[in-house]
Design goal:
mainly alpha, single chain, 83% helix, Growth Hormone, Chain: A
């Protein structure tokens, strides 16, 4: 007798989704407004890139630690505690704004925010297989990614309107309220948790657990290492260029308003939402071996952005093209993230999942801070169209190199014949 498949949106998964909507919206408006405030106050793309790079380092370092904690501590408690901590951090930043020098205050605040986010996401990722059945993993990951990108859609648009009309402080209060509300809601989530005995000091436990996750990847799934290398290269040459380049291009090169920047970054959120919907609809029909084609298409969108900034292109036309390309690149990246996450979750034991996901996230993102710092300097001294064109060329080379890697991954996670 075939049992009916349990619905995905049961109580606890629904609470996780709603909490993510609220928390990530607060995060999105904050990550939009704080760097923009710094760029507006200083006018320096080099400083903008350097601060962004410094802020990204704690996210990379805290992600593996967050993965270890996620495998040992109740994931609900992790999410609630970090959201409460973020609300407290924003309160302190609000009280200090205008009382201390802006640049060191911004660096400290963004480093702490990104560090908290780096520790937070492994708990969310590791909770998905516990709240959704194996046959629902692709759909569940698509939903979580859609939530992330929905916040990325609404946050910058709302942040751009609020920032243009009222400045930075209302955004800080709204974001603080989001984190407090999300933290309270997360206290009511029930996530299955098996307590593990803790022996030795905390740092020794972290080091031992990280070695355990590393041994699994190296011995059981070495193809994961190749995929992580490809993602790290892509983050270095393209993702970092877009993180720095889109605000610089819209605000400085095209001379558009804060609202226009919010719409462009909101289009990225809409693209991620559309990619998540598409991934949920396609489900198992998404093929890992097509990953290199997705990366190649993303490289072409960066070339389109470079063309939008070429001399002689009207500013408004250039902005529309930048916005359309921002939408397209997020559709592509979301498709790839969803299918990769589901593949890793299917192939990793539950007791190792937090560590393995954190390892993949940390290593694939470790090149981004260096890329942001370099691109900040390049955008300061070179025409933005030339910088983006060079980034597109480097990304194209990475996509071509990745063809063999994605084929190996597809073969590694494919079910055996007859299963």
């Amino acid at each position: 007798m075939i049992q009916a498949q349990a619905p995905l949106f049961r109580r606890d998964f629904t609470l996780v989704v709603i909490g993510q909507v609220i928390s990530l919206f607060g995060n999105a408006i904050l990550r939009f407004a704080l760097p923009l405030y710094l760029l507006r106050q200083t006018g320096s793309s080099a400083l903008f890139g350097a601060v962004g790079a410094a802020a990204f380092v704690p996210a990379v370092l805290c992600s593996p630690v967050g993965g270890v904690v996620a495998d040992r501590v109740n994931k609900r408690n992790i999410m609630a505690a970090l959201d409460f901590s973020t609300a407290g951090l924003i309160l302190i930043f609000t009280l200090l704004l205008g009382q201390v020098p802006l640049t060191p205050l911004m660096i400290a605040c963004l480093m702490l925010l990104y560090g908290i986010a780096g520790a937070y996401q492994p708990a969310v990722q590791a909770s998905i297989p516990l709240l959704a059945g194996a046959e629902q993993l692709t759909a569940a990951n698509a939903v979580i990614n859609m939530v992330n990108t929905l916040a990325g859609l609404l946050g910058p648009v709302a942040g751009g309107v609020l920032f243009a009309a009222f400045g930075i402080r209302p955004i800080l209060w709204v974001s603080m309220g989001c984190f407090l509300l999300s933290a309270v809601m997360e206290l009511f989530i029930r996530i299955p948790h098996r307590r593990r005995a803790a022996e030795g000091r905390i740092m020794a436990i972290v080091a031992r657990d990280l070695r355990e996750g590393w041994r699994f990847v190296r011995r059981e799934k070495p193809v994961f290492l190749s995929v992580v290398l490809v993602l790290a290269l892509f983050n270095l040459v393209l993702s970092a260029a877009l993180i720095v380049g889109i605000p610089v291009a819209v605000v400085q090169a095209l001379g558009m308003s804060d609202v226009h920047l919010g719409i462009t970054q909101g289009a990225m959120g809409l693209g991620g939402l559309s990619g998540g919907v598409l991934a949920a609809c396609l489900g198992g029909r998404l093929e890992l071996r097509r990953g290199s084609a997705v990366l190649l298409a993303a490289s072409m969108t960066a070339a389109g952005m470079a063309a939008a900034l070429a001399p002689g292109v009207p500013a408004r036309v250039g902005w529309w093209v930048m916005t359309a390309m921002s939408f397209a690149i997020m559709v592509l990246s979301t498709l790839l993230v969803v299918v990769l996450s589901a593949a890793v979750q299917r192939q990793t034991p539950p007791e190792l999942l937090g560590k393995v996901m954190a390892f993949i996230m940390a290593v694939s993102n470790c090149a981004s801070p260096l890329g942001q710092a370099v691109y900040g300097v390049l955008f300061e001294g070179c025409p933005p169209w030339a910088v983006l064109l060079g980034a597109a060329a480097a990304a194209t080379a990475t996509a071509v190199y990745s063809r063999r890697v994605f084929r190996r991954l597809d073969a590694a996670v494919a079910p055996a014949p007859g299963t």
